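Hi V.,

Quick status before I head out on leave. The structure for the redesign project is tokenized and pasted below; the design run finished overnight.
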């Protein structure tokens, strides 16, 4: 009921804007879209055209959609993927919104996984002078700080693992033993990662964050963009399944991964797992322990 009221307020306040974006004077049709974890998502249709709209409460997630817009724009500019164009963002004291191009779902082409891998490899080739980003954003519904660093090990420790570990400890989700194991990991972090230049990352590349577009190619959505070690996207893609195994060999053909990359998958999964512990509770702690075990 609460969601409906928010949506109705949104339609009332922004009907003229949405009609303008849809270039239609017809009545708007509002259909709820499932699958998201945080925001209320809708397909808004008029005159045979559609836009995709997400809504949330700006007090709970300040600046979330502005950051999503910047992230999507960066990926649109620097990657060969078809990325939805952001048409408008804004907020009232009660409601924040983002309106973007609606991606019609299609049937995967025969070379879907190869195309996906090649586009990701090309995107990862975009580098930067440091790890991080010129603005902070979100990972899921949690803030993600991107202060730059010249060292990936330092960035991963200070900007990714430590803040999430602190949060998990404060919530009583992680015990002293696990916390000590992380501290031991931090002391050897530098030698665990092969040196690589900062790579433009999607940052939250699990199977819920790509879609097959009408063209039959993969499109990536809902990013948590930053410049990081490219094995982070690879590790995230393996956390909950959904990527075909050929994806990894195609990726490797396009942009070869450093030796022993598979052994570092659990290392890269520590961050999304800590995020999951903080978002969804202690059920993920066991998996977190298993990922930590090979290193400490
Ligand atoms: P949340 O920010 O709440 O996690 P998502 O951005 O993941 O929401 O979007 C929720 C769902 O809506 C996705 O799983 C996908 O199915 C669909 N979706 C996302 N972006 C678009 C788009 N531009 N066009 C059409 N459908 C989309």
């Amino acid at each position: 009921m609460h969601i409906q009221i928010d949506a109705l307020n949104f339609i009332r306040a922004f009907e003229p804007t949405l009609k303008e974006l849809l270039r239609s004077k017809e009545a708007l049709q509002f259909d709820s879209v499932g699958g998201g974890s945080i925001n209320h998502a809708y397909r808004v249709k008029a005159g045979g055209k559609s836009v995709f709209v997400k809504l949330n409460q700006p007090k709970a997630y300040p600046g979330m959609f502005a950051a999503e817009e910047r992230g999507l724009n960066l990926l649109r500019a620097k990657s060969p993927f078809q990325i939805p164009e952001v048409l408008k963002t804004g907020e009232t004291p009660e409601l924040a919104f983002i309106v973007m191009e609606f991606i019609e779902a299609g049937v995967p082409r025969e070379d879907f996984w190869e195309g996906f891998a090649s586009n990701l490899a090309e995107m990862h080739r975009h580098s930067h002078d440091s790890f991080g980003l010129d603005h902070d954003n979100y990972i899921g519904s949690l803030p993600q700080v991107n202060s730059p660093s010249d060292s990936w090990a330092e960035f991963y420790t200070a900007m990714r693992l430590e803040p999430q570990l602190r949060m998990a400890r404060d919530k009583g989700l992680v015990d002293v033993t696990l916390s000590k194991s992380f501290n031991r990991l931090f002391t050897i972090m530098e030698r665990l990662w092969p040196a690589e230049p900062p790579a433009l990352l999607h940052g939250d590349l699990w199977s819920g964050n790509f879609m097959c577009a009408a063209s039959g190619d993969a499109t990536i959505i809902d990013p948590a963009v930053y410049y990081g070690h490219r094995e982070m996207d690879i590790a995230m893609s393996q956390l909950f399944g959904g990527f075909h195994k050929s994806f990894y060999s195609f990726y490797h053909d396009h942009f070869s991964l450093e030796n022993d990359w598979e052994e570092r998958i659990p290392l890269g999964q520590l961050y999304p797992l800590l995020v999951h512990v903080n978002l969804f509770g202690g059920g993920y702690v066991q998996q977190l322990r298993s990922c930590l075990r090979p290193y400490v």
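Above is the designed sequence. Residues 33, 35-39, 41, 52, 54, 84, 100-103, 208, 211, 221-222 surround adenosine-5'-diphosphate (CB under 6 Å).

G. will cover questions while I'm gone.

Best,
W.
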